[in-house]
């Protein structure tokens, strides 16, 4: 802003300080400090008034300096204290000072809030939108219970090792790409992109391309892999397992490639380098930031998590015991910030009954938005490597 100095330049005659005030003319200034002088007593024409908060403004004169105690300092002009009321009125000098920075200031106006505070009219159109069903899962029971895959949502899927997390993930992605025409971002932190892509192609072709004892047509595999070009993008796990790097990659995939659904497996890989207590704190930090990310963009993130073992003496996960939400690694953070928690159980012990062989149970652990629940049996067909609801 421009400041016009009207008085003549003078030098103080006080013996305890040497100071030359600002020379007359126009100068460029900027607001540097706002000093809160606290509540001050007020009096008008001998009558005591209620106390009022006072502020003073420190305006830096650009390109000017003064020497104080042998040190060169920016030259500041300080206003005298002025009263601050809830509205701009003519009872004090607040309006006069405000007009220095905003020429449109008028008497009895109200200041514009600078914080992130909204009124109903700011978001009423959004609030009036009719809720819609989301994109389907490959399992009808799950779709009905969750109302489909909807934006601004985090799903956590938990299971013990070798129970079915990976097949759940690959069956989901195959369905999204080929049945729902969705683009997907894959963040497989345990496997190289080539291996993950080959597994996805196998789900679609119903051929286990990863087994050495399975013969297949290489051209069919190549054709299916190329059909995923531009529809599935892969994060190279050799790059970084740091959440901030992964977050940047997700934002880029969303903004540049139009990807709205992301798979992150396993979530616990992000904190594997920390001690147990540090890991819980770090996971809480990551989940908080992830919740901010899905609120910022219309995206959905599926996180796959390891679970802690059952107490000794109780039925183990390997024997088909259900996963509980508090068994997730970093369970407090996940329950606090994720919208859905899903569990997978399967009896893979030698004592598993024949009729339960390759049968998993999918179920809801928590639903933060609607409090829904579900349970369904899912069969893994070793011949077609499909993982579909019975």
Q: What do you see in this structure?
A:
The structure is a single chain. With 390 residues, the chain is an alpha/beta fold. It has two domains: 2-122, no CATH class; 134-389, 3-Layer(aba) Sandwich (Rossmann fold), CATH 3.40.50.300. It is 26% helix and 28% strand. The protein is built from nine helices and 14 strands. The chain has helices at residues 94-101, 120-127, 140-146, 165-178, 193-205, 218-227, 243-257, 276-296, 331-337, and strands spanning 2-5, 25-44, 47-68, 71-78, 82-84, 153-158, 184-188, 232-234, 261-265, 300-305, 340-346, 359-367, 375-381, 386-389. The strands form two sheets. Strands 8-7-9-10-6-11-12-13-14 form a nine-stranded mixed sheet, with helices on both faces. Strands 1, 2, 3, 4 and 5 form a five-stranded antiparallel sheet that branches. The protein is elongated.
Question: Layout of helices and strands, plus pairs?
Answer:
Blueprint: E1 2-5, E2 25-44, E3 47-68, E4 71-78, E5 82-84, H1 94-101, H2 120-127, H3 140-146, E6 153-158, H4 165-178, E7 184-188, H5 193-205, H6 218-227, E8 232-234, H7 243-257, E9 261-265, H8 276-296, E10 300-305, H9 331-337, E11 340-346, E12 359-367, E13 375-381, E14 386-389
Parallel strand pairs: 6-10, 6-11, 7-8, 7-9, 9-10
Antiparallel strand pairs: 1-2, 2-3, 3-4, 3-5, 11-12, 12-13, 13-14
